[in-house]
Write a structure and sequence with these properties.
The chain is an alpha/beta fold. Helices cover 52% and strands 17% of the residues. The protein has 9 helices and 7 strands. A 7-stranded mixed beta sheet has the order 1-7-6-5-2-3-4. Helix 3 (38-50) packs parallel to helix 5 and helix 7 (126-139) packs antiparallel against helix 9.
């Protein structure tokens, strides 16, 4: 008598797993970047123009929408090298800079969380980092931007993988080999919960400025 019940349970689990897979899109970088990184950046540019609320958590790098040109070039050059895709660093850097215009357009909000490790990690050179952190201080004053820094000594309360929440409709995560895009409501709720936890641990305004300026002095001394 137990067998039909077990089969129904297994089938139910299988059906749910199938639905979750269908609601998860994984795309390898080699597919989206076969001709270089610039086409993907142009796609992101169009997507960000449609998003009203962008919530981004990035533990180890400065978020793309607030990168300086030299910092972006260093990051994108590293990506091109690792992936082995055609080198279009000039074009992709230019497109990434164009994406930042959305920060000054009406009707958009940006809630950015950055790990303190990103302030201290050297991307390119210490001079590039000093310039980048100075730019971060300027971005903090944009009306559309809320910038929080999660301190290195913050208690571990949530997984640290970076992700972006697109309004309440999608969540995306970048992996070494590709990107995962989720539109399952349960997954979006889980990412939202994680973002809220990290938001509560972050410091803002004067406290965030202090962390950024301390990191700047460290880079300037090297």
């Amino acid at each position: 008598m137990l067998l039909p019940s077990v089969l129904r349970s297994n089938n139910s689990h299988h059906d749910r797993h199938t639905r979750e897979v269908e609601q998860m899109q994984y795309t390898p970088w080699q597919r989206t970047c076969a001709t270089g990184l610039a086409p993907l950046q142009r796609t992101i540019l169009d997507e960000e123009a449609r998003i009203r609320l962008n919530r981004t958590w990035q533990p180890e790098l400065i978020i793309g929408l607030v990168q300086t040109e030299r910092y972006a070039r260093a990051v994108l050059s590293a990506c091109i090298s690792v992936l082995g895709v055609p080198d279009d660093v000039d074009e992709v850097t230019k497109t990434r800079m164009q994406r930042q215009r959305v920060l000054d357009q009406e009707g958009h909000e940006f809630w950015f969380l950055i790990g303190e490790a990103a302030l201290r990690r050297t991307v390119g050179t210490h001079d590039i980092m000093t310039e980048q952190l100075a730019h971060l201080l300027d971005v903090m004053h944009k009306p559309s931007v809320s910038l929080g820094i999660v301190p290195l000594d913050a208690e571990y309360r949530a997984p640290g993988t970076g992700f972006v929440l697109h309004d309440d409709s999608q969540a995306s995560t970048e992996l070494v080999g590709g990107e995962i895009i989720l539109d399952d409501p349960e997954q979006i709720a889980l990412h939202t919960k994680t973002f809220d936890i990290l938001s509560g641990q972050a410091v803002y305004r004067e406290d965030a400025q202090q962390l950024i300026e301390t990191a700047m002095r460290t880079h300037q001394s090297r």
